[in-house]
Structure formats: C-alpha cells, structure tokens
C-alpha cells in the first residue's frame, strides 16, 4: 500500500459516498491539506465498532488527484491496489 503516513492532518474531509467492492461496503471521502491545492481520495471499510475491543480501521488512501465526476472509478482503483 506504500507510505501513507502524514506529518499533519487534512484541513478538509468530505464524505463523497458509499461503494461496495469485493463484497465489502466502504465509505469514500475526499480530503485536502491547507498548503496544497489538490484534493485526494480515501476510503474506510464499513464495520461494527465493538467498544470493548477497539481495533484500527481498514483505511485506504490515494495520493493522486481525482476527478469528482468519476469518484467511483477512482475508489475501485484505490481499493484494488492494496
């Protein structure tokens, strides 16, 4: 999946929609950073949270700019390149 660590947090996160991929539901979002004009795509697998046994979410990011008109195509590509 590559290095997707950041030294700082996005200043904008927007829910784009939901998508099903390989029998798993994902929430897709866009995000951007204050010092960068680009908008990037991210996704997180939909899951039930067990408060007694918290675990990290399965999160995906693409550091390539994306076209918001074709977000589903970009999301499937992102989820397929684990």
Please summarize what this structure is.
Helix content is 12%, strand content 35%. By secondary structure, the chain is mostly beta strands. It has a four-stranded antiparallel sheet with strand order 1-2-3-4, covered by helices on one side.
**Weakly predicted, low-confidence segments:** none
SSE sequence, one letter per element: EEEEH
- Global Rg: 13 Å
For the report, how would you describe the main beta sheet? 4 strands, antiparallel
The general outline is: globular
Strand order of the largest sheet: 1-2-3-4
The portion of residues forming beta strands comes to: 35-45%
- What's the total number of strands? 4
What is the helix fraction of residues, given as a range? Answer: 10-25%
Structural class by sheet pairing and helices: mainly beta
Q: How many DSSP helices?
A: 1
What's the overall average pLDDT, rounded? 85
Number of spatially distinct domains: 1
Distance linking N and C termini: 5 Å
